[in-house]
């Protein structure tokens, strides 16, 4: 499981690194690329031995998902890893990683498009709207995503990522801290923006207001100094990918 976790963390790092690089291209005017997990997989597939690399990422993500599931069932090695709160956190991570792994594997097998789901975010929101109290469910989900984004940013600022790191060489500790803080803040901001659009969809009762990762990043480009803001967030996402490489190397486990 330790080997699977390290492989999976490195694979997850590849996804975030590519998303960050694709978002940087968008920031500098190249609007043809898609800055999300699907775009990252398609970009990876275009490299030499691309299909092999996509398989490697998909299998790595599957291993990481199983490791997170084991943490949810048996408890994690990090502080308070056996508490219900930490088990729930691991279960949520398992769910996300399982979807990403399935997406990568089906894409490598030629039976998927590389997206994380068969529908667009607005299509999924529209389906939830059809459920009893669907509008409230959408709003609650949006608030949860916003809270996750804020929580991720706060954890990064408080260096909580150190809880999952083992001994890091002294000469590299500062660099790893920079990767963890900058990457965690960028990731948290993107989550908060995406969640905000889900809340807006619930308020306006309009599923078209929902935006996925790519659209959320593109929205940042419309803000004041937008391209530079998007470039900063994109750089942060790429740094988070590098942090995941460091976590794979020095993970406590």
TrEMBL record:
Domain spans labelled DUF1206: 8-74, 91-157, 182-250
Keyword Cell division among UniProt keywords: no
Superkingdom per UniProt: Bacteria
InterPro entries, A to Z: DUF1206 (IPR009597)
Transmembrane segments: 7-28, 48-70, 91-113, 133-157, 178-205, 225-248
Keywords, in A-Z order: Membrane, Transmembrane, Transmembrane helix
Pfam families: DUF1206 (PF06724)
Descriptive protein name: DUF1206 domain-containing protein
Species per Swiss-Prot/TrEMBL record: Streptomyces pini
């Amino acid at each position: 499981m330790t080997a699977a976790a390290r492989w999976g963390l490195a694979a997850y790092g590849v996804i975030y690194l590519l998303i960050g690089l694709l978002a940087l291209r968008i920031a500098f005017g190249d609007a043809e690329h898609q800055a999300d997990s699907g775009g990252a997989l398609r970009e990876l597939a275009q490299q030499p031995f691309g299909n092999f690399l996509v398989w490697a990422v998909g299998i790595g993500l599957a291993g990481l998902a199983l490791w997170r599931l084991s943490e949810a069932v048996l408890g994690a090695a990090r502080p308070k890893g056996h508490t219900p709160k930490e088990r729930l956190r691991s279960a949520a991570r398992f769910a996300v990683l399982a979807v990403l792994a399935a997406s990568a594997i089906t894409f490598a097998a030629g039976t998927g498009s590389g997206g994380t789901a068969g529908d667009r975010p607005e299509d999924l929101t529209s389906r939830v709207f059809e459920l009893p109290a669907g509008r409230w469910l959408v709003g609650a989900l949006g608030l949860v995503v916003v809270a996750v984004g804020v929580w991720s940013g706060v954890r990064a600022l408080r260096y909580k990522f150190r809880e999952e790191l083992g001994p890091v060489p002294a000469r590299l500790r500062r660099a790893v801290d920079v990767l963890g803080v900058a990457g965690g803040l960028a990731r948290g901001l993107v989550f908060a923006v995406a969640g905000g659009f889900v809340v807006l969809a619930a308020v306006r009762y309009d599923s078209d207001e929902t935006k996925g990762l790519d659209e959320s990043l593109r929205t940042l480009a419309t803000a004041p100094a937008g391209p530079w803001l998007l470039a900063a967030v994109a750089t942060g996402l790429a740094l988070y990918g590098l942090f995941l490489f460091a976590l794979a190397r020095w993970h406590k486990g």
